[in-house]
From TrEMBL:
It comes from the Eukaryota. It comes from Vicia faba. Required for arbuscular mycorrhiza (AM) development during AM symbiosis with AM fungi (e.g. Glomeromycota intraradices). Belongs to the peptidase S8 family. Residues 681-782 form the Subtilisin-like protease fibronectin type-III domain. This is Uncharacterized protein. Residues 1-21 form the signal peptide. Keywords: Apoplast, Glycoprotein, Hydrolase, Protease, Secreted, Serine protease, Signal.
Amino acid sequence: MNNIISTTCLFLLLLPLLASCTKNKQVYLVEFEENTNGEKTMHEIENTHHSYLRLVKETEEDARASLLYSYKHTFNGFAALLTPNEANNLSGMEGVVYVRKSERKIYSLHTTRSWKFVGLDRSFDPYEEKSNETNGDLLAKGKYGQDIIIGMIDNGVWPDSKSFSDEGMGPVPQKWKGVCQNGTDFDSSNCNRKIIGARYYLQGYESIYGPLNETDDYKSARDKDGHGTHTSSIVAGRAVPNASALGGFASGTAIGGAPLARLAIYKACWAIKGKPKNEGNVCTNIDMLKAIDDAIEDGVDVISISIGFPQPVKYDDDVIAKSSLQAVRKNIVVVCSAGNAGPGPHSLSNPAPWIITVGASTVDRSFVAPVNLSNGTIIEGRSITPFHKENIFRPLVLANDAEYAGITSANSSGYCLDNTLDPIKVKGKIVLCMRGIGGRLKKGLEVERAGGFGFILGNNKTYANDLASDLHFIPATAVTYENTLKLVQYINSTLNPMAQLLPGTTVLDTKPAPSMALFSSRGPNIIDPNILKPDITAPGVDILAAWTAEDGPTRMTDNDKRVVKYNIFSGTSMSCPHVSAASVLLKAMHPTWSPAAIRSALMTSARTTDNTGNPITDETGNPATPFAMGSGHFNPKKASNPGLIYDASFNDYLLYLCNLKLTQNISITYTCPSPLPQPFDLNYPSIQIHKLNYTKTIKRTVTNVGRSISVYKFNAKPPKEFTIKATPSVLKFTHVGQKRNFVITVTKSRDELASESDSEKYFFGWYSWTDKYHVVNCPVAVSFQ
Ligand SMILES: *[C@@H]1O[C@H](CO)[C@@H](O)[C@H](O)[C@H]1NC(C)=O
Ligand SMILES: *[C@@H]1O[C@H](CO)[C@@H](O)[C@H](O)[C@H]1NC(C)=O
Ligand SMILES: *[C@@H]1O[C@H](CO)[C@@H](O)[C@H](O)[C@H]1NC(C)=O
Ligand SMILES: *[C@@H]1O[C@H](CO)[C@@H](O)[C@H](O)[C@H]1NC(C)=O
Ligand SMILES: *[C@@H]1O[C@H](CO)[C@@H](O)[C@H](O)[C@H]1NC(C)=O
Ligand SMILES: *[C@@H]1O[C@H](CO)[C@@H](O)[C@H](O)[C@H]1NC(C)=O
Ligand SMILES: *[C@@H]1O[C@H](CO)[C@@H](O)[C@H](O)[C@H]1NC(C)=O
Ligand SMILES: *[C@@H]1O[C@H](CO)[C@@H](O)[C@H](O)[C@H]1NC(C)=O
Ligand SMILES: *[C@@H]1O[C@H](CO)[C@@H](O)[C@H](O)[C@H]1NC(C)=O
Ligand SMILES: *[C@@H]1O[C@H](CO)[C@@H](O)[C@H](O)[C@H]1NC(C)=O
Ligand SMILES: *[C@@H]1O[C@H](CO)[C@@H](O)[C@H](O)[C@H]1NC(C)=O
Ligand SMILES: *[C@@H]1O[C@H](CO)[C@@H](O)[C@H](O)[C@H]1NC(C)=O
């Protein structure tokens, strides 16, 4: 078989028909046995890889052109375009472990499709404590992040935004080794002491989709659609006063969590050719692998990744998991979004235990845009759509009653889909459109097409109280399911139903907040049921931050000609950089803390109550479980002084991987010891037990980072039907840095429960260590055998 291909190829090579031969070429990953890259420069490594390719390629030129990427840290090998025969030939060579076709794994950015825009207020600030003194303290102690470099793996940056000004910033940290790569509309003049580096990765994209169409995206680190600009400014944007725009909804100072931190931009995600922009971007595995590889080589301290795979994926199939482990090995903190596939279970991205996995929740701010009914009732709504048209009372009509003849439930009647509304029945009216099928913004376009004045987006039962505050093209507001029923009833029972859309206003201090976003991905973790994920939640709903001056704020390029400098986005893409910023400040304050220590500090100090003092709720209004919020809502100020930490080293992760028999698959040469610790013994600041058979004993170690002489007592709020105890139940410390071991025993409290078993039903509780100054909190999730 291989020979046939080879012959065909050779034959074709003699003819001017190279293309047919190139067709047989695919992207392969070639891995070597021993990683001797340690001290080598990238150039030396490339030369070595090239020399291998030279052995299988006809010409020097061909060998050079076929090498897509040489990797140093994340993977011991290279990516190249090879024919099956060349691959086969390479795989026989000494030192080569394997040659595999690179799977077409396509990752995507973790935003919802609700692109929004409005002003900003303080709830954007990650330091939510009301006392400015303590906030100043954390920021000041962390020097606003000025010595810390954050690597953004995303789709680029809009460097001209005021948020990336370097005014008054000190020199670039000396350890920085990165570059400012030239490209379309981007050169070294676009880097400064804020954006200290910028690179882009296109080989994987082009090997799948062909040459980048430059009308879709810039062939450079410049961000076209806004996502990377938004996430970067959430982490490290400078203070920009009066950052409101369009409609002047709210105004305030836009500022990132670590305003003096340095940004290193790695663009690995690109627009998909031929698809509407709001379908998102794509990030291929070999591009991501190289982006993270370079970030490690360049000397970043924290890596922020608001990207994931659409379904849960095993560590050894996941470039984010694999390359993050190599980053953590170099003491780099890796923060990732949990995904927007909620609220269903098993929907998590990025669950590896060496990553900080972040869910998304609301802030205490709403954009209230009510509907006034002619019978005197006001219906609450949400919108960030500015409109200046005369907002008088207008006829209100159900979409179902305003459609062309022949539109039935088979055509999704009631949803205001394209070409369903009859202009005769809609002209000048307000239309009630159902949410659930079709894009929310596109419904407005359909109402506009049919000559309607505005519309009301009615939630269906599943969305319930989850209100999307959108930036529509026509006057519009969104209402809950309950209010949708009221409106339907009003229309049915009124002879001439009329309504008035009242303009939106920003309301602060709304309660309860935070509460989990409907879209935030949920546990249980099915990649490894011994690890509870996500780790934490942070603001990810209606977050204002910088934008490109290129694409419209809703990313519907064809329709949206509006240009904005600041925009509102929702998604775990937005919550992830909040936690990245907190990690920057913690790293600055505690330079010796490991990535695990930083995660532990954030998790054990997280808040579990909202601004009403009650447990944080989810979209149903019930208390959120750790499968939605992890340890709770991040609380950076408290995290700076956690008292105790649950530390873990690179070696601990190797032992953990030995247990899963994955060291080899994850390309790590390591001799697993015997006997091995249990996978649930990884020193993690939370516990998940899948299918507990009566009782389980779990080992943990805490390190004192608080007062030298301190005594911590054990407390537990066990899951229903279980008991939790710790041995010992008092931990005494005499100095900082001292470690104490203990075991947690989780036991079923009634034996007969086994018969009621449902291994998918989890029960939740907490345990904590407390001294006079700290509460070191850990969630526990248990299911029966
Ligand atoms: C690879 O190809 C070269 C030349 O085409 C040949 O000399 C060599 O033996 C081949 N190696 C393997 C392992 O097949
Ligand atoms: C904020 O800081 C100022 C000046 O340091 C101080 O006077 C004021 O009391 C602080 N406000 C709060 C709420 O702590
Ligand atoms: C990048 O572009 C600038 C001019 O825009 C040029 O001076 C510089 O040499 C270029 N750098 C590289 C590495 O090509
Ligand atoms: C690039 O995209 C634009 C807009 O979609 C299209 O008009 C153009 O033909 C494309 N160019 C190429 C070379 O495919
Ligand atoms: C911000 O806007 C307000 C009102 O539009 C104005 O009074 C104020 O001077 C502006 N502040 C800055 C710093 O531009
Ligand atoms: C609602 O409409 C009534 C008239 O039906 C009017 O008196 C009232 O002011 C309106 N409410 C608001 C908040 O505009
Ligand atoms: C609506 O659905 C019916 C039945 O599937 C189909 O015959 C009709 O063409 C559809 N109409 C439109 C406008 O899509
Ligand atoms: C609401 O819409 C969503 C999205 O289409 C759908 O998954 C869900 O089943 C709908 N709920 C109801 C009760 O119709
Ligand atoms: C309203 O009227 C429609 C028919 O126009 C009917 O299908 C629906 O059940 C009615 N809803 C209520 C809540 O009365
Ligand atoms: C107006 O109509 C709504 C919906 O039918 C109803 O809930 C409300 O009670 C009515 N208000 C008055 C004052 O009749
Ligand atoms: C390791 O990878 C091989 C090949 O892909 C696969 O067959 C095996 O199941 C993997 N091992 C584990 C423990 O997942
Ligand atoms: C559960 O534990 C008991 C003893 O503790 C043992 O006899 C039994 O086989 C275990 N069940 C399973 C399914 O492992």
